[in-house]
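Researcher: Last one for today. Full complex below.
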Amino acid sequence: MYGSAYIDPNTKFDGYLAPGEDPAQLAEFEARIAAGDKIEPRDWMPALYRKQLIRMIEQHAHSEIIGSLPEGTWITRAPGFRRKLALMAKVQDEVGHAQLLYNAAETLGKSREDMVNDLLTGKSKYSNVFNYPAVTWADSAVIAWLIDAAAIVNQLANSKGSYGPYSRALDRICAEESFHLKYGHDNVVFLATGTPKQRQMVQEALNRWWEPIMHFFGPPDSASQHTEVLMRWKVKMDTNDNMRQTFLNMYVPKIWDLGLSVPDTELRKNEETGKWEYTEPNWETFKQVINGNGPCNAERLAVRRMAEEKGRWVRRAILKENTEYATPLS
Amino acid sequence: MEMTERHVMGLIELLYKMADDQLIIGHRNSEWTGLGPILEEDIAFSSMAQDKIGQSLALFELLHELGEQDPDTVAFTRNAEQFHCCQLVEAPIGEFNFSIVRQYLFDQAEALRFEMLMASVYEPLAMVSRKFRGEIKYHVMHGKTWIKQLAEGNEESHQRMQEALNEVWPLALGIFEEGDYEKEISEVNIFAGEAALKSRWMETVVPFLESCGLNIPQSDAVTGGRHGQHSPYLQPLLDEMCEVFRIDPNAEW
Amino acid sequence: MKINSLDPRIERAQLDSESQQGMNTPMDQFQTYEVFEQKKRGTHHIHVGSVHAPNAELAAVFAKEQYSRRGQCVNIWVAPTTSIYATAYEDADIFETTPSKYHRDPESYKVMDRIQAYKQKQNA
Ligand SMILES: [Fe+2]
Ligand SMILES: [Fe+2]
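Model: Here's the assembly. Have a good evening.
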């Protein structure tokens, strides 16, 4: 899942050519993108493009591996063969997505070791939504349906971006996401059409996850030169608000259709503008959670540290001395 | 020879222990999801856990055809003493050395068991065995590759592998604890029996482990599992597995 | 501080938020292998991505599940990334064919006119 289109508005930006970069090369690079061509790893690219892409793909990769944890909470408790097999396969796919995305970021010159270390020290972020707990089985269903749905909106947009390896990874990821979405929807439908206890579980889960979902696409983009350049370079493919609208338009009717409600009395589609109106989620909470104060930030990182630590003797034992390294090709 | 009631009971016993083994080890190995030693291995280990759960489902379906309850009910509502798995599969995942040695020793036994069962006169079981062949072949390949590399890795990993083998070996011998119908199921060629399986397994795993520089422990089998006597790990595992199921026993999940 | 988790797997591991601060050293995740997948006999192996692995045997074990766990595949190749020599995109123009390469083009071999003319001449 789970690229977040969110780019920190505080990123320092002073012109989009670094000192020493050649305007003629930039012109060629921009012409290639404008023509709908992809940029490949060994092409010339502006430092800012490389930096933003590494940052974005790396965060996306972290989000996949951390994203395996909330649903992983229920992996030993999934009720029945059908759910158990599907949840295992779904969470496995997320780990697979992390693998593909780390590779894509690696083609830009940052090693997997450095990316993992930056995750463990908190230097590099992941999608905020995974800092919330999956309290009941129904939370895992809501995650698989709606968080994956939100992620698909984002990933489909990004798959049309300009960087070849990221687009290729996303094409494969999106194909797998369609299974996640179906599985999640099926799971929610069973709960929503089930016993009163099941309905209650799924409604409560939806209430818990609504604000994190509204946060998912990030705060409204500020109109900056930075955003404008990233959109021209097809790094950022759509505005946060547009993607949020797409998501609401596709999924709110499906939620209502099941007789479930969303904890926002202002939520409605304005038929004149065609836009959804809603209560702006609390962006201060969003910032707080990004900065480490969400309900599960500490746990998520502690678990990743444990996994890395537990595997270290294994990796050390089989690493051959004098191994040569080359950046993966694509 | 004609199939009598005792032959059918032997067949049911055989299917239960196989299905329970697969279910419990699949469940255990699923605990590694997202926590494996490297992303690529995380994915491989999860696939094998899924294969195991899928195989147990197929075996529970065979039992259902023989008049037992449906797979979900059988798998998710019995208590520990009603399970027929060996104690090997119940133990917690421990560290990677324990999990990988267990995975190999168990899957090598499964590979040989299913190979023998491909010739079973009970055609549905023979069919299922043929279907699983590829999956299990990969599991064995996976286990052997890891064991060889870690046993021959560095001093630390060699020692860890030997320790894990010492721990797993007596439990693994428990796979071959005989049931109450060994004679019946072999005389009608349903399955040649645990003793035959064990000798084939020994002939396969001992030379391989020794070729990796590991010593075969001299220890006795931990038995009881096939007769409902389990380690203290099984009941909590089942409680966890059935937690959601029990929230609302009338619900469809 | 002890981590209290809703995940029974994590709860059993008894984690502490302060412990295990170890970092990964360079090459901790090995080198990479490029993976090529053949969907069925008679077709080409096609590059599908890469895996991190310490050697070819494990790379193949990993590649099988990461790239072929769904769908059809009959064969996998893995090759160390370091062994692959690639042309530069800057040199993409070497692949451009010019009209002067007509001698390679089957369309440029049109002999029927000549045969017809010859036959007419013979009959005349
Ligand atoms: Fe994903
Ligand atoms: Fe997903």
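Chain B touches chain A at residues 27, 30-31, 33-40, 42-43, 46-47, 49-50, 53-54, 57, 71-72, 75-76, 95-96, 149-150, 153-154, 156-157, 160, 240-245, 247-248, 250-253 (CB under 8 Å). Residues A 1, 94, 148, 177, 180 surround fe (ii) ion (ligand 2) (CB under 6 Å).
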